[in-house]
Design goal:
single chain, 3 helices, 66% helix, membrane
Length: 116
Amino acid sequence: MEKVLLAQIKNPVVPSLKNPNNAPQIIGKFFAGFVALLLIVATLWSFFNLILGAFNWISSGGDKGKLETAQQKMLQAVIGLILVFASWAIFIVLLQFLGLSQGLGGKIEFKLPTLL
């Protein structure tokens, strides 16, 4: 009777976890998805700052202080984009080094080591 009651309990956070052996793959997919989301947000933020810096440059009206501020904003945005793409490349290389991915578009497989 107790096993029947326990079998009806479901995890609301991970509803598709029917087989506990799939937990490492779910964790790996979650981690990869989270990193991808952060990279997308960082890319959009850097691109937005680049556009904003260009707009400030155009609207500076010859004021040297505003022009330098706009140039610094654009430089920082380009550096941010370079850092985002470098971190993406490092993430892909790290996944391949650890044997979790077969390439740029490959499936990510996260396997925990076992003693036996």
